[in-house]
Amino acid sequence: MSHLRVDLRQRAEELVALYPRPRSAMLPLLHLAQEQDGYVSPEGIAEVAELTGTTTADVRGTAAFYDMFHLEPVGKYVVGVCTNIACLLAGGLELLDHASSTLGCAVGSTSDDGLFTLEETECLADCNFAPCVQVNHRFVRTTTPETFDALVSELRDGRRDHDIPTHGTLLRVRRAGGLHAPKNEIAQQREEAKVARDKRAEEKK
Amino acid sequence: MATLEAPRIVTARIDYDDSYTMARFLATGGYEGLRKALTMFPEDVALEVDEASLLGRGGAGFPAGRKWSMLRRAPVSYLVVNGDESEPATFKDHLLLERDPNGIIEGIIISAYALQVSQVFFFVRGEFALGLERVQQAVNDAYEHGALGSKIFGSNFSLDIVVHPGAGAYICGDETALLEALEGKRGFPRIKPPFFPAVNGLYGEPTVVNNVETMANIPWIVLNGGEAFAALGAGRSKGTRLFALAGRVKNPGVFEVEMVKNTFRDLIYDPALGGGLLDGHTIKAFIPGGVSAPWFGPDMLDTPLGQDEVGEKGSMLGSGSVVVFDDTTCVVRASWRITKFFAKESCGQCTPCREGSGWIERIMYRMENGGGRMEDLELLLDLCDNIAPGGGWPPQQTTICPLGPSIPSSVTGAISMFRDEFIQHVHKGGCPFD
Hints:
- The complex is a heterodimer of chains A (205) and B (434).
- Chain A is 46% helix and 8% strand.
- Chain A is α+β, with helices and mostly antiparallel strands.
- Chain A folds into two domains: 1-73 and 175-179, Arc Repressor Mutant, subunit A (Orthogonal Bundle); 77-156, Glutaredoxin.
- In chain A, strands 2-1-3-4 form a four-stranded mixed beta sheet, with helices on one face.
- In chain A, a hairpin with a 2-residue loop joins β3 and β4 (138-139).
- The termini of chain A are far apart.
- The relative contact order of chain A is 0.11.
- With 434 residues, chain B is an alpha/beta fold.
- Chain B has three domains: 22-230, Rossmann fold (3-Layer(aba) Sandwich), CATH 3.40.50; 233-326, Ubiquitin-like (UB roll) (Roll); 331-428, de novo design (two linked rop proteins).
- Chain B has helices at residues 22-27, 32-39, 42-52, 64-69, 92-99, 101-115, 129-145, 175-182, 212-224, 226-230, 264-269, 307-312, 331-345, 351-368, 375-387, 403-417, 419-428, and strands spanning 78-83, 119-124, 160-165, 207-211, 233-234, 237-238, 240-247, 253-258, 283-287, 321-326.
- Chain B has a four-stranded parallel beta sheet with strand order 3-2-1-4, sandwiched between helices. A four-stranded mixed beta sheet of chain B has the order 8-7-10-9, with no helix packed on it.
- In chain B, α7 (129-145) links the parallel β2 (119-124) and β3 (160-165).
- In chain B, α2 (32-39) packs parallel to α6, α5 packs across α7 (129-145) and α6 (101-115) packs across α9 (212-224).
- Chain B is globular, with a radius of gyration of 22 Å.
């Protein structure tokens, strides 16, 4: 019995099949597991290990390296405020302080109602809208305390769920199509191209 | 006044609201470069790029054509595209990924054809949720359109592109760390030599790794010829380039300008570009090419925007990000925050970087917050000297990847340019700007 939902399990198997080696699917699979559980759970880790042919220690060790994977449960909305150089110059630290008081949680922690987790992030590459704020990795472009508070009340009312889905960045990223040709046919194409190219190089001489 | 006559090569269609759709892409010359490339021999396509003298747009500025030609003798197994943009204040690739994903994909297909690769991995930074959606949509549309998959546009060339999401690690911008992440491991940069993925790449096979903006230039080069591209710019810096302008300016944003023909002054002050500093303020210093680059003072404003031109003055054009400080900017706080970034993003493999970054960050923090001591200045410089001995530029390498030796540039730069301000912090017992 797999821990991943049937549809996600199917997507997971599709992802593994895309790579020459199953372990390469590690990051996308961790994203999927996190999308289902809200964080990278022990059960999710076990399933990713099974799918990638690695151990749970391997998976946990890899997941721990990357900022986007949460190994502990987090709020429904993960709010990231950037304080890196461009945002610092635009008042990022002040906005982070303000966010902390609006959300009622310290930086790096989750609000009592389990709705928000506040993070101080590194540069999110949206510096013309500094200080930069992301909610569940969607750019919300609320650069002032007032617009930030307006966003928070919309989130509380569930009015932004259409453009800020809960967790996960792969939720709406679905691959369609692919290279549907036998491997030997591709190899033959490349071989033919190589022979033709060598012949041209020979003629040039 | 800035010279703005050059054609827009990579941002030609981004002003349209629907610039990211296949319909707009096709209506604005989409896939014309690819169709032309497929009528040429692969080696001739590579030759055009070589003639264009296109420098890689990731940060190191390595000639793209030479990267490709290293592999001409042996067949290439994989092309990997680096869309893991995370250098602080760099936001040009983010713009392209969201606004013109189809243009990038076209560049990738052409490049794969030139290299005769049948498998591409497109690594996109995990935090770009919308970018990932649009890139995958562009790939899906390309399959439907016959521009990807088996026998592209009826030719004898087949290609698959897999979009691979990152998961939040600055270090994965280093090409060898990116390959490790693609293999499903921690993003630890690989020990050199071998220096290039061309020798030992993905799964140990020959691999080319190129930046997103580099790819976006390819369709134009094929359509208009390498010579036309090389006619823009000057010296070793050809073509146009995206500059991400941030900090204390009126119009922060991404601007495509011809290289060398314009200066930092043009970029920052021209009304069509940065529009000058925020009202009533004067420039104090600026970072010319990402936070790894040594800072420049206002006396360097007339330096042309070219790789060698900036290099000669002791810094680098790097990732093309320019950050402007004004008279309200506390340089201690600014360099503290940059060091904090490096301390957080150090992967931890090498001692000078792992220990040095955290140590410097703690000293800077205490100085900014009232606990600074006069001897801290020398201690900071000594620490920097241990991370990159000699303090020259480019820095001496003491670590596996360039992250470590990038740490000192903002610290030594700030101290040498604004020593008084550090001393003020110590005397006042806190930040004079608070």
